[in-house]
Design brief:
5-stranded parallel β-sheet; 15% strand
């Protein structure tokens, strides 16, 4: 059965390479508009977002339209979820309308995996709790490949709220399949030791300078206050210990790539001068999100 795209953990390096190669064909040439195709004409996709989203939801929507599909976006506040309907009932209702795929974001880790066992419709995970965000890792990989041509052997420092980050987890799964050297950094309360066991050789540190020394890629993460029940660190001091500033960039490789999945909090985890600098690939990530989601939707709907 076609289960869509639920996570990076369970897909092979070869599948990832196929998706990335196809994504490249959807990237616009410099200065050119995005390509439009009719590959998915007559197909319909429901975008179901139970959590806030700007980038991911619009990106999936645009990707579906550029492939010629019909797309309908539903957010939890505008659906009957706010009238007490359970997730299974909402999904069954939507499933009965026979969309060709459902793209979903949910606060519960594992929600798309659970639903994919009951629904005959393929599900694309657009972020489930603190678990995974597969298309984010794919678009991050594409962005690194655009600048470096390979992931093998690169030192990638992932910095911030590792504990609550589905972006970090999906990236760890992907990067470790490709032989990158992964360094995870954050305050001890946001750096669970078990996460270092996902793959051999992952380095964990609470020292930002150590994480960044010699880095080819710095991935900053937002502090996910919405997932923290109690303060994990003194908020006023976060930036001075874990905020990315210009002086850090000098300690990394000269052509270091600075990334962030967004939304960014300027002055909390990243200084404006860094976010807006030549080294920042943040808007390239957003742009690549569309190409990657076109490749993912095509793959899910074509099979
Ligand atoms: C991330 C998410 O929602 O997981 N954002 C995104 O999809 N680009 C990261 C975040 O919210 O901090």
């Amino acid at each position: 059965m076609n289960r869509g795209l639920l996570d990076i953990e369970s897909i092979s390096r070869q599948d990832i390479e196929t998706i990335l190669a196809r994504s490249k064909t959807f990237q616009p040439a410099p200065g050119q508009p995005f390509k439009r195709t009719t590959i998915l004409q007559g197909r319909s996709i429901v975008n179901l977002f139970f959590e806030a989203s700007t980038r991911t939801r619009t990106s999936f929507e645009i990707a579906a339209r550029r492939l010629g599909a019909e797309v309908l976006s539903i957010t939890s506040s505008s659906s009957s979820v706010s009238k007490g309907e359970s997730l299974v009932d909402t999904l069954n209702t939507l499933g009965a309308m026979r969309p060709d795929a459902i793209v979903m974001r949910h606060a519960a880790s594992g929600a798309p995996h659970f639903l994919s066992r009951y629904l005959p419709v393929p599900i694309v995970n657009a972020g489930d709790g603190t678990h995974e965000h597969p298309t984010q890792a794919l678009l991050d990989a594409l962005t690194i490949l655009d600048r470096r041509g390979t992931l093998e052997g690169l030192r990638v420092a992932i910095i911030g709220d590792i504990a609550h980050s589905r972006v970090a987890r999906s990236n760890i799964f992907l990067l470790s399949k490709f032989g990158a050297q992964i360094v995870l950094c954050g305050p001890a309360t946001l750096l669970p030791p078990q996460i270092g066991q996902i793959a051999p050789g992952i380095e964990l540190t609470t020292d930002m300078e150590q994480a960044i020394r010699g880095a080819d890629v710095i991935m900053m993460l937002r502090v996910q206050l919405e997932r923290q029940n109690e303060a994990a660190f003194p908020a006023a001091e976060y930036f001075s210990f874990y905020g990315l500033r210009l002086e850090h960039i000098e300690a990394a490789k000269p052509n270091v790539i600075v990334m962030h999945p967004g939304p960014i909090n300027r002055g909390r985890e990243i200084a404006s001068e860094v976010a807006d600098s030549q080294r920042s690939a943040i808007l390239n990530q957003v742009e690549n999100g569309i190409a990657v989601r076109m490749a993912v939707l095509e793959r899910v709907l074509a099979s």
